[in-house]
Amino acid sequence: MQAPPYTPTTDFSDDESNNTGGRSTVRCDRLDSELQNISSSINTGNANLAILQRDDGALRDGVVSPSSLSSATKAFVLATKWNARGIWATATAYAANDMVEFGGASYICVSPHTSAVFATDRAAGLWQIFLTASVASAIAFTPTPTVGATDIQSAINEVDIENRALSMPVTAALYGGL
């Protein structure tokens, strides 16, 4: 089941302009209804996401099965005849078309060799990247004047912390200084 889409049921700006609530410009029953709608949508989305994704951001085991792959993907995998070898290891003999994981990304061995240092082997053209890092902390981010993080996960965390700090006065004003 997909999360229900969130559609606002009240336009607070119209209520504010029209002083609809009488003494107060905020009608708490409608505000609570809006927040409940948002909560329901987010909670359902989170529950669905938990079915598909582990806490570390990777797909849960068993989520992708051969039957869930497109026919084009199946044909591509069969045509390449890759040999999944798991996590890259030093002092290991690799053959052409061996596939390894290193630093959150997948690589294909281009030329048979015994591994030494991954960065050196990669620079020598022995590995070709197949799939880039699938975790946000492994993807580079260029710092901006307002976000100093150097990877996507850290940037998200930094913006989230700043956003929470900025939204606290608004929440306190809405609920009378919780």
Q: Which regions contain 5 or more consecutive residues with pLDDT less than 50?
A: none
**How much helix, percentage-wise, in residues?**
25-40%
> End-to-end distance, in Å?
35 Å
Q: Class by helix and strand content?
A: alpha+beta
User: H/E order of the elements?
Assistant: HHHEEEEEHEH
Number of domains: 3
Please work out how many helical segments DSSP would assign.
Answer: 5
Rounded to the nearest angstrom, the radius of gyration is 25 Å
User: Which of globular, elongated, flat, extended, rod-shaped describes the shape?
Assistant: elongated
Describe this structure as you would to a colleague.
The chain has helices at about 10-20, 30-50, 70-80, 120-125, 150-175; strands at about 85, 95, 100, 105-110, 115, 125-130. The two termini are about 35 Å apart. A hairpin with a 2-residue loop joins strand 3 and strand 4 (about 105-110). The chain folds into three domains: about 1-60; about 80-130, Ribbon (Seminal Fluid Protein  PDC-109 (Domain B)); about 135-178, no CATH class. The mean pLDDT is about 80. The protein has about 180 residues and is α+β, with helices and mostly antiparallel strands.
List keywords for this structure.
5 helices; single chain; alpha+beta; 178 residues; Seminal Fluid Protein  PDC-109 (Domain B); elongated; 3 domains; 6 strands; 4-stranded mixed beta sheet; two-stranded antiparallel ribbon
Topology summary:
Blueprint: H1 12-18, H2 28-52, H3 71-80, E1 83-87, E2 93-94, E3 98-102, E4 105-109, E5 113-114, H4 118-123, E6 127-131, H5 152-174
Parallel strand pairs: 1-3
Antiparallel strand pairs: 2-5, 3-4, 4-6
